[in-house]
Amino acid sequence: MKLRNLFSIVVLIAVGLLSSCGENDGPSLPSGGDGGMSVNDEVLFTDNTSFSINIKASTKPVLTTDAAWLHIGEVKNLTTGIYTVELRVDLNDTGETRTAEVYVTTGKEKSTIKVTQVFSDLVKVTNVSPDGNLDANGGTFTIKYVSTAPPATNIPDWIKIDNTRSIDEGILSLIYLPNDTGNDREGLIVLAVGKSVANVIVRQEAR
Known about the structure:
Blueprint: H1 2-20, E1 42-45, E2 50-56, E3 62-64, E4 70-72, E5 76-79, E6 82-89, E7 98-106, E8 109-117, E9 123-129, E10 133-134, E11 139-147, E12 152-154, E13 159-161, E14 171-176, E15 185-193, E16 196-204
């Protein structure tokens, strides 16, 4: 009786170690019938990190997807009938949540994993008018951008934001001063939303 209890404890420990293995913490192994394939139904990415999933199957599964932003790693055998594979995604700078499907095939069995990725912080400059070469006598120029939130800005002290327009519209209107320094000058304008940063370099000759 004591030997039987000891064997049960060893089995429980082995199962616990199996469920926690893998490079990243992924979901627990889905339950399924004996001999049938079991796999996660859905995976959610909140950023561009990797995510490991476990698959229970009688033979090594094959995973495919038609989404260019979703990458499938090598299928590795953890133990008899249990496999693991890493899914990776590119940065989602579309400004919208996107979805894709991973198709899992083992023998005659097929399953589908739905992959959802929320959008990341985004700010992109789409147009600078004029083109960044400013008049020596001063004037105005605009920066058009797309972003997932109103960006924070870092602007040289000789350039001011024109408050006649709101940055929420996606247009940053600026006023720059005449260049009486005697030297040509260059300024860096930075727009930032979270971890996303866009830079604009402007140059102004001395008058």
